[in-house]
Predict the structure.
Amino acid sequence: MECPGEIVTREELQRHLWPGDTQVDFESGLNTAAKRLRAALSDSADEPRYVQTVARAGYRFIAPMAQVEASEPQFIRAAPALKKAPIQLRALAVALVLTAVACISALVFFVSGPRATTDARFTQITFDRGQVSSARFAPDGRSVLYTAQWGQNPRTLFLTNTISPESRALGFPESDLASVSHRGELALLKQQGVTPISGSVLSRVPMTVGLLY
């Protein structure tokens, strides 16, 4: 509204709303602000009455404007020809204030928010020589169920956790662990023959069955 009829470029809006060192998705932020502004004014991008989009350039305020007399409070309002202009201009002002508040809030969040750490912590929980073929977390969120073949022993299901490095064999020889339900049920795949082409059998077994042995 400070430049009625003139194109305000997206770069000008970006510099006005965000400092140069701000890390934010400017394109998405401007698009969202324009959509909310039109929603507040009941305006349309296809048939604009107030805010016109200039392709690959920026935006233009196209509603008629008039300056009030010096004796009245100094503010800009739409021409008298538009009967509902004062109400909609107030809505425009509110929308601009809300947009500015949202931008400031986003800036504060990005500047003062917690920084995500990229450091990963690894804890070794198996120590034998062999091959681990599958693994899943147990329902308690701390224990780990895994299928492994250690040395010349058959492939077996084990249970371990990060507190104790010792693994407990649950049995179910020559079966691979496919899934664990939140109720502690196991989905096991047992291969028929020596090659996958021979087929497999899918079984559903309570985890407590293995804990009994």
